[in-house]
Amino acid sequence: MSQMDNRNKRKKKSEEFLSRKGKKQKLDKFLDAKVENQKSSKFSDEKIKNQKSDKFLNRKDEEKNGNQPLQRTPKNAKELTFCPVAGRCGGCSYAGADYETTLKEKQKVISKLMKEFGSVEKIIGMKDPFHYRNKVHAAFGRLRNGTIISGTYEPKSHRIINVDSCRLDNEKADKIIYDIRNMLKSFKIKTYDEDTDYGLLRHVMVRCAEATGEVMVVLVLSSPILPSKNNFVKAIRKTYPEISTVIINVNDKKTSMVLGDKEQVIYGKGFIVDELCGLKFRISSKSFYQVNRKQTEVLYGKAVEFAGLSGRERVIDAYCGIGTIGMVAAGAAKEVIGVELNKDAIRDAMSNAKLNGISNVSFYCADAGSFMVGMAEKQEKVDVVFMDPPRAGSDEAFLDSVVKLAPEKVVYVSCNPEWLAWDVRYLVKRGYEVKMVQGVDMFGWTEHVETVCLMTKTERQ
């Protein structure tokens, strides 16, 4: 065969190969571009790396079709040793790293974002960064061979990663979920399939009160009817008598939301009670309650310390939830006003104030920004505003209401330092200055971090 013929043959094979690869290359470029567009929520370089490496995870649940799920390869053996599903569940960005190293990384993030306002205090780490999550949620499903699985969703998909135990979760909560999974077959309870809209059990959520030992189990069903519910409760409480309440939550919609609107208490009072900062708090299934109790005491203690309360101040606890920060501050303030839009949370907050015999705190179900604008229009005076907004931060309407009310101090508790920096910058331009910034590690091994920031009103306002 001539040299020209060999070249033509190689060229033909190369063209065939490129043709087969064409679609995959096109898909890769599309998904890479999609990842680039998602960088608006970047928190660290590590998160972006994970987003890129998980780029194929938007596909349908291949596990149901008998295929092996695509996954990010663990960066090193330490990560895999840390957790067998490291890189797949998306929970631990720092799996396998030294804990002190993770604190330094979080310190860098906070300092970089807040350096324009002044120095940042050294982050307060956890004494024991394992099994700190007091609320554990598991999605339930079934493999093609009939095996029941439970765990967390793989990032950017509805593919369930089977998890028997997690190094961040409360150990008892994990065991309860594992045993419920093993009970389903004997009780003939089918797991829900979102593609076919068939089956009963969608999720299980377990909340644990660390101080009192009480445990809540929430069964999220597609229908309000649980076969042999009394026997089911009896069976699970035989192994775990500390379960003080069991709730059926009905989610009959095709939605990514875990909890539905309707609930039925099938055992106990429908809530548990925990202790935080020396106070008791009633926690229902939908209550916002920080998942790390020990570090929450550190966080709230630092927030009240920053406020420098003397007993003469009138305080607003915006985004008050079940009243935790406001009630902790009430012992050092003249009056505390809690404002929250969630009516269930306000009901719990009122119950918590009564439970603790606190008479100088009142709660209102309202939009915090509108509420404060109303106070400003009535020329009412407030000395301190505590604000603990959702991860997305506050909006301009709320921040403008703070400026109009003009408290002497604003204590901002944030779970997202990026949005904290934006909100603080907004307030600084309108007459406030930053006095102190402190990071608190609430979520060990993840990229998330809480930050407390104290701002005071300047004369130019």
Report on the architecture of this protein:
There is one protein chain. The protein is an alpha/beta fold and about 450 residues long. Helix content is about 35%, strand content about 20%. The protein contains 12 helices and 17 strands. The chain has helices at about 5-35, 45-55, 75-80, 100-115, 170-185, 230-240, 295-305, 325-330, 345-355, 370-375, 395-405, 415-430; strands spanning about 120-125, 135-140, 150-155, 160, 200-210, 215-220, 245-250, 260-265, 270-275, 280-285, 315-320, 335-340, 360-365, 385, 410-415, 430-440, 450-455. The strands form 3 sheets. An 8-stranded mixed sheet has the order 1-16-17-15-14-11-12-13, with helices on both faces. It has a 7-stranded mixed sheet with strand order 4-3-2-5-6-7-8, covered by helices on one side. It starts with a helix and ends with a strand. The relative contact order is 0.10.
Features of the shown structure:
single chain; 461 residues; alpha/beta; eight-stranded mixed sheet; seven-stranded mixed sheet; 12 helices; 17 strands; globular
The proportion of residues forming helix, as a percent range, comes to 25-40%
Q: Give the class from helix and strand content and strand pairing.
A: alpha/beta
Question: What's the tally of helices?
Answer: 12
Instruction: Note poorly predicted spans.
Output: 16-74
Q: Which percent band covers the strand fraction?
A: 15-25%
Summed over residues and divided by their number, the pLDDT gives a mean of 86
Main sheet summary: 8 strands, mixed
The radius of gyration computed from the alpha-carbon positions, rounded to a whole number of angstroms, is 26 Å
Reading side by side through the largest sheet, how are the strands ordered?
1-16-17-15-14-11-12-13
Q: How are helices and strands ordered from N to C? A: HHHHEEEEHEEHEEEEHEHEHEHEHEHEE
- The tally of strands reads 17
Distance between the termini: 88 Å
Backbone shape: globular
